[in-house]
Design brief:
single chain; alpha/beta
Length: about 325
């Protein structure tokens, strides 16, 4: 199957208590992409989200496990399409930008097109969220590669081969971080397009908790470093242990060279223990680096197992 004018496009909208906004979001995407299938995945809403989404013409499905990561994992597993457009159901993103994002994805072709948010008001992008996004995106760009911008944006276009090779493991808002690192580790074609980011409709409340979710995302980054860069992670621990062991051991060595005695035996034992711990950490990093390479190759094979998109106007291979 190739991506052409007849390709199936799925709009994925994860929702939790978005009755005030979801109807407009569905109608806006329907107007922007009349041929797309619009899915609303409800995540235990206690308001009229399901009824409003159904009335607006969306295909409504449910995910009982609470958290955006659970919803995204369910969407990626269940929905079969050539192109996936994912956005939030809170009417903060501009649905009219979807055709431009889709055209950019097809023109590359790009496996991931990320909407870089341009706030249209102070209420749209709070200072704490903006600072956290800059810091967390900067950390990922430094460690995994600088080809991603606005990592925490929820408005994306993804190819089938990207979605079906993504082993979603996150449970909450840290899913955006996992998506970005997946794209960087697979070295897939990535593109960006700026788009308006507006405030929620009156009466609607954000589900993002600045400090709790920021901490969760930071922990996800550290976990991904351990999983995807084990040699660097455990090598750093080994280096720290080596430095501490050297600092503790140098005075003992000097004393031994002058007197032939080791007067502080507990310190010598401690330095030896820390040195051995560092050596064990380095060995662990080397072993896990080989394991990680195998996992990366499996993800690449899953990615290559899906049909490649073609640029419009070019014959399929």
């Amino acid at each position: 199957m190739t991506i052409d004018r007849a390709a199936t496009v799925a709009v994925l909208l994860p929702c939790h208590n978005e009755a005030l906004a979801i109807g407009k979001v569905v109608r806006d995407f329907r107007a922007a992409l009349p041929d797309a299938i619009i899915y609303v995945f409800d995540n235990n809403s206690t308001d009229a989200t399901i009824a409003v989404a159904s009335e607006a013409g969306a295909v409504v499905r449910r995910e009982p496990q609470q958290g955006k990561g659970h919803v995204v994992r369910r969407m990626f597993r269940d929905i079969d399409a050539d192109v996936y457009i994912m956005a939030d159901g809170d009417d903060t993103y501009d649905a009219s930008l979807a055709p431009a994002l889709l055209a950019l994805a097809r023109s590359g072709p790009h496996d991931l097109v990320n909407c870089v948010r341009i706030a249209t008001g102070d209420e749209a992008y709070r200072g704490g969220h903006r600072l956290g996004n800059v810091l967390l995106t900067g950390a990922v760009r430094t460690i995994f590669g600088d080809r991603v911008q606005d990592m925490l944006s929820g408005y994306k276009v993804m190819s089938r081969r990207f979605v079906k090779s993504f082993p979603a493991l996150s449970t909450g808002f840290d899913i955006e971080t996992e998506l970005a690192v997946h794209a960087l580790e697979l070295a897939v074609p990535i593109a960006h397009l700026e788009g308006d980011y507006r405030g929620r409709p009156p009466g609607s409340e954000s589900k993002l908790r600045t400090w709790q979710d920021g901490w969760r995302i930071l922990m996800m980054i550290l976990k991904l470093i351990r999983h995807e860069r084990p040699l660097a992670f455990f090598g750093g621990i080994a280096l720290a242990c080596a430095l501490v062991a050297i600092l503790l051991g140098i005075p003992l060595l000097i004393t031994y060279l002058h007197t032939g005695l080791v007067p502080r035996l507990p310190t010598a034992v401690l330095a030896t223990g820390i040195g051995l711990a560092g050596l064990l950490s380095l060995t662990t990093g080397i072993i896990l680096d080989t394991v990680t390479r195998g996992r990366r190759e499996l993800r690449a094979l899953a990615y290559l197992g899906q049909p490649a998109p073609t640029v419009p106007g070019e014959p399929p291979f």
